[in-house]
Amino acid sequence: MGTRHGRNSGIPNRQGFDEWYGFLDQKHAHTQYPTQLWHNEEEVFLDGNFGPGRKDYAHDIFTRRALTFIERNNTGPFFLYLAYTTPHANNELNRQTGDGMEVPDEGPYAGRDWPKQDRKFAATVHRLDADVGKIAATVANLGIDQDTLILFASDNGPHREGGNNPEFFDSNGPLRGIKRDLYDGGIRTPFIARWPGTIQRGKVSDAVCAFWDFLPTAAELAGVKPPSGIDGISIVPALKGQPLAKREYLYWEFHERGFSQAVRLDDWKGVRIGSRRNPIELYDIVKDPGESNNVASAHPDVVKRISAIMMSARTDSLQFPIKEQS
After folding, report:
1. What are the two backbone dihedrals, phi and then psi, of residue 83, each rounded to the nearest 5 degrees?
2. Antiparallel, parallel or unpaired: β 281-284 and 268-272
């Protein structure tokens, strides 16, 4: 099975999870009709997906198992991480057929005069929304609403995969860029929190947070200290309508199409695309959320601060070495 630091070191049961069900490989997770999944460290074959017929839709299986997990564990504290892969596309299928959007049916969008892949994308999002609703309804029906925090987030902005056209639904709204861009259209994502009795319905917060804030947030809620030396801050104050602790900056980097970096510093956003040899673009992200007006020349002091962060914030990695665009 491999060593802790070998090929299978990412198995959730070896990283602190008591139970898990799902994919073990990112490319395998591109399809919603796999022939097998994993329950803990045992392979589970999905007979309905062998041969030409495809009957076992992974997303639906994950929903059913999540609901069962909640019902089985609702009498005490529990943590459920439900990592849906939809609406990600099957990129390999798309390269073969031009249509990588996998969904059992087009739902309420069947018959719409839309491109087929966009109908299927909408149906996938519709299905996701409905299943998150089932999770919330189950928590409510079990009477544990006020003791249960539900967080929903996306891992990146809209994509142009599987034949889907993000412009068709204006998926990034006023933001610039899509998945794989470090402009906010690629990295600014939905984040919804539901906690009746603690979070006011319909409340909107302008607090800035990132995925690396989840661990210290979960630790505070569990009444334990987070590991030392990690990035991130607890966002529990923001969930309760209070100011967040001051943070120095947020940092991103991306290793496809060269080496790109981005920094959020207060209301400033610095972006450098493709190579460290390229100039830093600077935007007032609050006044200019669409990142259309590069004001780097007017604020050299801010650009200098962001440049220093780009040099110091990252850690060299064998898995992600810096590759400059030629």
Report:
1. -95, 75
2. antiparallel
CATH code of 250-312, in short, is 3.30.1120.10
How far, CA to CA in Å, does 183 sit from each of 157, 242, 276, 290? 10, 28, 16, 8
Domain coordinates in residue numbering, the chain = 12-143+153-161, 250-312
CB atoms closer than 10 angstroms to residue 230: 11
User: Which CATH class for the 12-143+153-161 domain?
Assistant: alpha beta
- 250-254 and 21-22 strand pairing: unpaired
How much is the average pLDDT of 141-145? 97
The span from the CA of 47 to the CA of 54, in Å, is 9
- Give residue-wise pLDDT tens across range 163-193: 999 999 999 999 999 999 999 999 999 899 9
The pTM of this model reads: 0.92
Residue 134 parent element (H or E):
helix 116-141
Between the two ends of the chain, the Cα-to-Cα distance in Å is 40
At residue 5, does pLDDT exceed 60? no
Higher pLDDT, 245 or 109: 109
